[in-house]
Amino acid sequence: MTKYKRTLLKAGLGVSLLLGLGLSKAAAESNDDAAKVIASVEAFRLAMLKGDGGALEQLCADQMSYGHSAGRIETKAQFIAASTSGKSTWSFINLTEQSVNIVGDSAIARHVLSGETLSDGKTTAIKIGILMVWQRQSGAWRLLARQAYRI
Predict the structure, then answer these.
(1) Are strands 73-75 and 140-150 parallel, antiparallel or unpaired?
(2) C-alpha distances in angstroms, 149 versus 18, 23, 30, 67, 103?
(3) What is the pLDDT of residues 103-122, one digit of tens each?
(4) Largest Cα–Cα distance in the chain?
(5) How far is the C-alpha of 60 from the C-alpha of 90, rounded, in Å?
(6) Per-residue DSSP letters for 81-125?
(7) What is the CATH number of domain 3-150?
(8) Nearest alpha-carbon partner for 40 in 115, 114, 140
(9) pLDDT single digits (tens) 53-79
(10) d(CA 46, CA 40)
């Protein structure tokens, strides 16, 4: 093998190694971000269950759009007011079939929400699909959009 071919081979191996390390780092960062989004989804679930306005305030972006399965759309302020009014409360909320995809400073989270609400003395079973869009804002994941749909 000529000196030129050896140099090209070494350069090619070096580039491959650097690309591999870069991809590994990107994959690790993506996994870390996914874990943080999953933790944010869980914090959101608990805040809804407890009607915790302070936690919801922290988790939701100011620009949030919150879509209900019946078609009603709420702003952040409207959603938090309704969630903390005590008019309708959650007995339990379970999330299944969860997936998270990280795209830069945004994340798409999906799950099936099963739960039970109590409103005006009436218990209602809930089972809906949820799409959440999270955005990294000031270093924290904030809920930018949420849309429920009937399944």
Answers:
(1) unpaired
(2) 44, 36, 27, 9, 23
(3) 999 999 999 999 999 999 99
(4) 85
(5) 19
(6) HHHHSSSEEEEEEEEEEEEEEEETTEEEEEEEEEEEEEETTEEEE
(7) 3.10.450.50
(8) 140
(9) 999 999 999 999 999 999 999 999 999
(10) 10
**Residue found by looking up tokens 């302070």 in the block:** 54
- Could you tell me if 48 and 57 are in contact, meaning their C-beta atoms sit under 8 angstroms apart? no
Neighbour count for residue 96 (Cβ, 10 Å): 9
Phi, psi of 145, deg, nearest 5: -150, 145
Tokens of 1: 């093998």
Could you tell me the end-to-end alpha-carbon distance of the chain, in angstroms, rounded to an integer? 64
Q: What is the dihedral of CA 28, 33, 34, 40, to 10 degrees?
A: 150
pTM of whole model > 0.90?
Answer: no
Partnered with residue 67 across adjacent β-strands are 73, 147
Could you tell me the two tokens for 90? 């959650």
Query: Nearest Cα to 90, choosing from 51, 132, 142?
Result: 51
Listed by start position, the domains of the chain span 3-150
Strand, coil or helix: what is 20? helix
- Amino acid 13 reads L
Phi, psi dihedrals of residue 62, rounded to the nearest 5°? -60, -30
